[in-house]
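Students often ask why we bother predicting the structure of a whole assembly rather than each chain alone. The short answer is interfaces. A chain on its own may look different once its partners are present, and contacts between molecules only exist in the joint model. In this exercise we take two input lines together and write out one structure for the complete complex. Read the inputs first and try to guess which parts will touch.
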Amino acid sequence: MAEHLVSEAPDEAGRAAVWRARSVTRTHRGRAGATLGVAALTFVVVAVSAQHIGRYAVSQGISSIAAALPGIIAAIAAAVVLVMAAHASMKSLVAARSSDVYSARALGAEASLGAWRALSWSGALLIITAGAWFMVVNNAAVSRTFFDLALIRDSAGKVLWAFGTNVIIFSVSAVLILAWSLVIAIARTLPGETGRPLRFLAIAYGDLFRGLPAIITIYLIGFGLPLTDLPFLSDLSSTSYAIIALTLTYGAYTSEVYRAGIEGVHHSQVAAARSLGLSHAKTMRYVVVPLAVRNIIPPLMNNCISLQKDTALVAIIGAIDAFNQSKIIAANNFNLSAVTTVAILFIAITIPQARIVDKLTERDRKRMRAGG
Amino acid sequence: MALLEIERMTKHYGLVEVISDLSLEVAEHEVICLIGPSGCGKSTLLRCVNRLEEITSGEIRIHGDRITGPGVDLDRLRRDIGIVFQGYNLFPHMTVLENTMLAPTKVLGMSRREAEEKAMSFLNRIALAHKANDYPDRLSGGQQQRVAIVRALMMNPMLLLLDEITSALDPELVSEVLDIVRDLAAGGMTMILATHEMGFAREVADRICFLQSGRVHEQGPPAEIFGSPQKERTQAFLRSLKKAGRL
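Now the answer. The structure tokens for the assembled complex follow.
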């Protein structure tokens, strides 16, 4: 046994020495010091800004408590960050003086972590302060144009009522899209030679309506169909045209999501189902589609959010949705605050859904990591 | 007449010939074990018998009736030929009970109650009745594979194909699966097993087929093949298994 795959290294003692020499303690003094400087600067900027902006708000007739409170909170936050940074610096200094290597390492790591944390909080506070300044510069032009509270209050009823149109368009087309796009996806995945004609049509449909901007589809259908004098189809409400157009557009996108889900089902599942004597249709119905749907809930919900926002596009064919209503109010008052109301409404309904999508995605990722 | 006759079958994947000119007959109640090195065509052979794969030439007959070629009702064919896969392939979105009831109710039109009774009696016999309403991911590999066997048995197959059903299992779970196969063999089920469990093959098989490069290189009763193999290739294969401690 002269030749082994691995034979004893000639210089074991040398390797050990190199290893020990490399294990120096990092105290992160530079990082901690720089962070302390940034935090101090942040505190000064936030405090001065809070005072200035608060005084301006009071001069505009806002109660002194309401004007001062945000500034005070911001200043306190900046002070906490400053303490955080100071703490990190202290740890770094103690680490440098510590005689025990292991505790020095631990302190150094804590100092580094604390410094990063203080730095990211400082950044956030500075960005928020910049936003506050943006609102009040030029005699608060930004605030007045977008956030005229009186106008928002007066117009909210009308805008909210019109938002009902968006909700109707969204909910009806969401249901239609889910069914319609599944039909397209199944046509798109038909097997073999016999499925080719329908497969081809499904591909053509998908290409067409994914290529066509939604606003053009809405325009063509909303203004085009009434001109055709076709029975029934030519005298629908603009809301119905909007539903048809959005279903066609989103049906194309959503069918791709379904298709990805269907093709993502492992072929061994199909083999198992077919080997039990299930036909292609029954295999799709009982095995493939149920599995596919489970995998695509996050992207489906993303499409759903996107659809909700695109209901605002129907304003182009004269449907009185929230956006159109608020545009009318904006034109009458020469102020965009009613549109802000719409923006807030859309954001308010989409944020919870976005969080749900995040949760589902995270859960999926965990399940993948757990190995199925 | 033999239950299954495979005559001069070949199977190509593109240019690669996986099975070449292979002939094999399986009588009713016979248990055949296919052994041989990886890639020798064991799994492909099984998957061709229920036509999950199409053969390139030759023919396969069941009770004298040709099942290869056009016009064969595959769904009808597969009702009568069960297969159990190496990776279990249970449907993850269905409970154990639903997995076993799917094909009888949706393919044979059996009532749900009848199917459930039948499934429960099977599950009782393999001591998994308490798992009936669990999803497959709550079961161990051995338990999943036992359920997969029951799922195949629910269709009353006249031929059962077992494709390396213990290869994906932890060693301590192998025996619980093999016990069921042993029981099926004793009950007269016609089976073809692709397997690497040589000890089990020797015990349960009526006939061992050693496959090499897509052909039946040597076949005979277990005692003959394991005791005094005639062909050089067979001897080499068994020798290497012995060296690895697998025989």
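Check your guess against this: The CA atoms of residues 279 and 285 of chain A lie 10 Å apart.
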